[in-house]
Amino acid sequence: MTTAPAVPHTPFSRPRHQGTGYLKLLRRLHALQRPRHYLEIGTAAGKTLALARCASIAIDPRFRLAQDVRAGKPACHLFEMTSDAFFAAHNPTALFGGPIDLAFIDGMHHFDFALRDFMNIEPHCRPDSLIVLHDCLPVDDHMARRDPRDRSRTAQSHYPNAWAGDTWKALWILQRYRPDLRIFAFDAPPSGLVVVTRLDPSSTLIKQRYDEALAAAHAIDLAGFYAGFEILPTAALRRRSWLSSLIRPRRFDFSAHLAAS
Question: Does residue 252 surpass a pLDDT of 90?
């Protein structure tokens, strides 16, 4: 019995993102969205958490805070645990006393983790809330490797010390399985920033098809993901009127949703 020869991997790379850095773009989103309740997954030294000026929840297995992240906040809840453990034990809507307005996902750089984070956050949002995902637009195979210890393609990389992981597959799943969402990808260096809105807090579609979605994503390569994929310049996100035009929320009774859940 003979086996077919392995198909050699064709290295993938695309031009580096040329827009505003992701931290500045996230600051701009705070200014435009004016959230009352902010939640983030993956805090590390606290640079992103420090941008918030509202009641905040931060989740990280090991905080390494290098600044006062409480400044300007009426409340700041720090949960040193995994995001899965947090959502199993806590209700962010109850902690805030209302829905999440802005969420930032920058936790474990594996797509299954990022997808679960999105699934766990969305039920606590309004349709016009924003869920922002980091590291979903890696520019080469090295940045997009699943194992951070893999250094086999370092020499071909624009960012030899960066690791975005395979979180881009979570974005692919959201595009494929949730066409009702509005998804906007911005060219924020080094690994993009993605804004998702027109949320549906009552949706269980991905939860019901979770295993199927993970299996389908395993078969997608980075070149196939980018084929026909539009990336917007960060300069487009300047005015609140522009952000409002993206959202145009459906009518949704959040109180009725919470009562039924």
Answer: no
